[in-house]
Amino acid sequence: MIPQDHPRYRSLMVREHLARCAAEGILSLEGLTAHGRGEAFDYLIGERTMESALLAEKTAAALLILARRPVISVNGNTAALAAGSIALLQNASNAAVEVNLFHRTEERVRKITALLEDHGVQVLKGEAERLLPLTHDRALCLPGGIGSADVVLVPLEDGDRCQALVNMGKTVIAIDLNPLSRTAMTATLTIVDEVTRALPRMGRFCRDLTKEEIQVLATGYDNRELLRSAIREIRSRLDHALD
Ligand code: PTJ
């Protein structure tokens, strides 16, 4: 039992939830270690949305709205942490949702699909094909989903698929708490924020941005500069941590 007055209550509750999801076969065991890495970066960030991330989230919403075939790619961690927020973002952006896993088994795909559907997400289904030039199973995707998407949102990605998608000419939006990860560096647009903070806000921006704002945001961003700003914000927080 985690006492509600524990200073790390939320974090401990999330860990307990993820451990349960791992026991149920939704999260991979490796997903637990990936979460730990994310927590460490979030500690440095201050567990809040930085200014640079807010701008990236607005820009991501603009790119999703302007996309012809937007797809949200969902793995075990994202489904376990944010199934409800994916439903909201899907509603607001009209994006398709596809389950794409690094540690892929058909049983996990089924379980994650069921969890998403329980939260109101419409999940693409079909015969996955090896459409990306990768030797692992993230290469497996749906021709009518990630295969033909122009914009792909990839929360908690591993870097080589991100690079492969960019090489195919797709706009890739990553959500990653580590601004130095290969994914962060290779994505077209990177949101350095925690997935449960980023997704709901993106949904709201999809609803609230004006046509003019969407045009300005979608044409005027520079991912390297956004990453530099994120690193500057983290550094400045650390500089004052013991003041
Ligand atoms: O469900 P599967 O089989 O597809 O596997 C998913 C994982 C996450 C295990 C797989 O994609 C993986 O190994 O990812 P990596 O290479 O560990 O990268 C995950 C990145 O996400 C790391 O840079 C973490 O810092 C970051 N991260 C972890 N938790 C969060 C996060 N970013 C945003 N929000 C989080 N909650």
Tell me what the structure shows.
There is one protein chain. It contains ten helices and seven strands. Helix 3 packs across helix 8 (195-208) and helix 4 packs across helix 5. It has 243 residues and is an alpha/beta fold. It has one domain: 3-Layer(aba) Sandwich (Rossmann fold). Strands 2-1-5-6-7 form a five-stranded parallel sheet, sandwiched between helices. The chain is globular and about 55 Å long. The termini are far apart. The protein binds ligand PTJ. Ligand PTJ binds at residues 28, 30-31, 34-35, 37-38, 41, 75-77, 81, 101-103, 156, 158, 175-178, 181, 194-195. Ligand PTJ binds next to helix 2 and helix 4.
Number of helices: 10
Proportion in β-strands: 5-15%
Helix content: 40-55%
Spell the H/E element sequence: HHHEHEHEEEHEHEHHH
* Spatial order of the strands forming the largest sheet: 2-1-5-6-7
Low-pLDDT parts are none
Label the CATH architecture: 3-Layer(aba) Sandwich
| Whole-number count of domains | 1
Q: Kindly, what is the distance between the CA atoms of the first and last residues, rounded to a whole number of angstroms? A: 35 Å
Largest sheet: 5 strands, parallel
And the CATH topology? Rossmann fold
CATH class category: Alpha Beta
What compounds sit in this structure? ligand PTJ
Structural class: alpha/beta
- Under CATH, the homologous superfamily reads Phosphopantoate/pantothenate synthetase
Mean pLDDT: 97
